[in-house]
Protein: FAD-binding PCMH-type domain-containing protein
Amino acid sequence: MASSRIMALAMLIISSFFFLSTYTQASSDSFLQCLSASIPNQILFTRSSPSFASVLASSVRNPRFLTAATVKPLCIVTATNASHVQATVVCGRTHGVRLRVRSGGHDYEGLSYRSARADATPFAVVDLAGFRSVRVTRGTPATAWVDSGATLGELYYAIGKVSDRLAFPAGLCPTVGVGGHLSGGGFGMLLRRHGLAADHVVDALLVNAEGRLLNSTTMGRDVFWAIRGGAGGGSFGIVLSWRVNLVAVPPKVTVFNIPKSVQQGAIDIVTKWQEVAPALPDELLVRVVAQGQVANFQSLYLGTCDALLPVMSSRFPELGVDRTHCKEMNWLQSVANIFLGDGATVEDLLKRTASGDAVFNKATSDYVRQAIPRDIWAQIFTSWLARPTAGLMILDPYGGKIASVSESETPFPHRKGVLYNVQYMNFWGSAGEEAARTGWVRDLYTFMAPHVSKNPREAYVNYKDLSLGENIVGGGNVTSFEAGRVWGEKYYKGNFRRLAMAKAQIDPNDYFRNEQSIPPVGNQFILTNVTRVDHTA
Ligand SMILES: Cc1cc2nc3c(=O)[nH]c(=O)nc-3n(C[C@H](O)[C@H](O)[C@H](O)COP(=O)(O)OP(=O)(O)OC[C@H]3O[C@@H](n4cnc5c(N)ncnc54)[C@H](O)[C@@H]3O)c2cc1C
Ligand SMILES: *[C@@H]1O[C@H](CO)[C@@H](O)[C@H](O)[C@H]1NC(C)=O
Ligand SMILES: *[C@@H]1O[C@H](CO)[C@@H](O)[C@H](O)[C@H]1NC(C)=O
Ligand SMILES: *[C@@H]1O[C@H](CO)[C@@H](O)[C@H](O)[C@H]1NC(C)=O
Ligand SMILES: *[C@@H]1O[C@H](CO)[C@@H](O)[C@H](O)[C@H]1NC(C)=O
Structure:
């Protein structure tokens, strides 16, 4: 382990020299000249533009990645149509400047707008926040074309305004961008009844590394498979728009939220929840947010309170759900209520910023396939969650639809046999707390190792974590597949190799690359004559 780390570090240093030596100031100047000639001036923000800092900050969700030391882009292009994106890719390719793409800016590592490497070659950001229309079409099934820069809240609102019988199964947080979310899978309160957001994508428009605009047919089957959950790092190109199938919901759904403290039996109830929640009827999702000495059971039932109560009293009497807990409303209202609280209106789903934007945070994830013993939950509550530096744990139950899809149907492999996803998250208010707060996440992750999935220890790509591993550039000026397996198989299991083959089809020269992008595998030895360095040893 240690020697492979040293090897990886050595390779990183060698490959960085390789890049720096070939990079010149001239290429960034000529890149900017190319852009000025190809796109409207008002959508180009260079470092010297007065609004560069505010445009950069506009969708940053984590102040850790907006400091003086942050490695920032050379410029930002706030594209509003496909031709802007195509022209930016062509200029980037021609002048050797790489791109990062930002839709909602929620990336846990900020990789849509910053580089994690101090010695990174200059890069530009394509910001799609202004590229965000949603067009809903009734029919069987009803569908929507949604642009990547739309937020989940904007998508949900547009659907809910067409019909209170239609919905889309995706994440809870309304400010998350469609572009990044669908690229990594995407799950929320409908996951047990309807699966992942990416499971519902039926067409997409993608700008490839040559600047060509492709659809689901012209991009090829393997690439279309890959972008539906396997492009958590913008590896295959820039997805501009997605066509998704919508799902049917009843006109009335029921929300309930029940806190149980440790004194009220939280340890026993969470222990039991592990096996109950993944086996409940698909219409019912009961998740847990554990913080301090309290486990909050947050729920959505696709039906009325009358229908819910007998299910809860027979399947999970320990929770003590009664009529006073039920809040009946339509699905769109439930989205606002669950994430934003009781006073929230559906119009609040349209806000693109949130009060929590200035909070520093760090997260990572696990999958649990065998219920964790009660004594471990006792330690989690009485030790880990009780510390002054503690964050929280979110447990999202699987089973139902998400588990009925085969592991290779999409790149997202965490399906049959998963009881639940765990997210460990910590928050803090000032830079000085970072070490203690991130240390809590890291140490709890280490403590949990014996109790979670193994070989590989699975993780959810939308909860991106660079401490799971980072790419290195290998021989042939492309990202190393072997090195990428360290993080890639955690996110994708056996699908990682197929993703790397799809990458080789659409971007063999690895133009779209970052710290955790899919490496190309298959034909890199044919395409270049650079000697391959072996770092599998
Ligand atoms: C507060 C909060 C709540 C969340 N809640 C949930 C949840 O309930 N369920 C869940 O599943 N996840 C959730 N997430 C995780 C979220 O799904 C991911 O962070 C997602 O990648 C964010 O997408 P984005 O467009 O906002 O991010 P961005 O930072 O814009 O992008 C994320 C990644 O995708 C790439 N990318 C972005 N747009 C494109 C594009 N158009 N084409 C190609 N690549 C692109 C970026 O380069 C980057 O690597 C949450 C995150 C936060 C911060
Ligand atoms: C996109 O932008 C270009 C350049 O600004 C413009 O010429 C073109 O008409 C636009 N296309 C659409 C569909 O708006
Ligand atoms: C994709 O583009 C091709 C070629 O332009 C076209 O024939 C096809 O109808 C388009 N749509 C889909 C869904 O393939
Ligand atoms: C590496 O590949 C990129 C394209 O992916 C290219 O722009 C760059 O010039 C290459 N660098 C070298 C040193 O060949
Ligand atoms: C690789 O090298 C061989 C021999 O030096 C040469 O004939 C061939 O054209 C090169 N291929 C590429 C893709 O550069």
Observations:
- Confidence is low (pLDDT under 50) at residues 16-21, 524-537.
- Residues 2-22 form the longest helix (21 residues).
- DSSP finds 17 helices and 18 strands in the chain.
